[in-house]
């Protein structure tokens, strides 16, 4: 699992470099069982005003409360930050070899004009 996390960090860094400072990429580690501090890596955290050690958004928390077998990736949806900016977001649920969600990989792109 450590190898998978390192790959996700590399991918997050590459995506944020490609798309610039308006593109936040967040990795949540659910293997540690502490949702309140699940963010283990974040690029451009100023987009949502979050940092490593913070927890998931309300949308992600709501999803995690549902039947794990029915949780699917959510792509290209719109969200709004507390200060009113509009984000185009995608959330991918990365599963371990047993099918359990181990990581969440989220991309939040500020499209506020």
Automatic annotation (TrEMBL):
Residues 5-112 form the YheO-like domain. Pfam families: PAS_6. InterPro entries: DauR-like, YheO. This is PAS domain-containing protein. It comes from Candidatus Mediterraneibacter stercorigallinarum. The lineage of its organism: Bacteria, Bacillati, Bacillota, Clostridia, Lachnospirales.
């Amino acid at each position: 699992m450590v190898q998978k996390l390192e790959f996700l960090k590399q991918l997050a860094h590459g995506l944020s470099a490609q798309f610039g400072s308006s593109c936040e990429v967040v990795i949540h580690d659910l293997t540690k069982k502490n949702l309140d501090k699940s963010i283990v890596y974040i690029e451009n955290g100023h987009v949502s005003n979050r940092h490593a050690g913070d927890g998931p958004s309300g949308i992600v928390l709501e999803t995690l409360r549902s039947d794990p077998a029915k949780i699917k990736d959510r792509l290209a949806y719109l969200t709004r930050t507390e200060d009113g900016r509009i984000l185009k977001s995608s959330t991918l649920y990365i599963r371990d070899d047993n099918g359990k969600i181990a990581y969440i990989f989220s991309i939040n792109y500020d499209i506020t004009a």
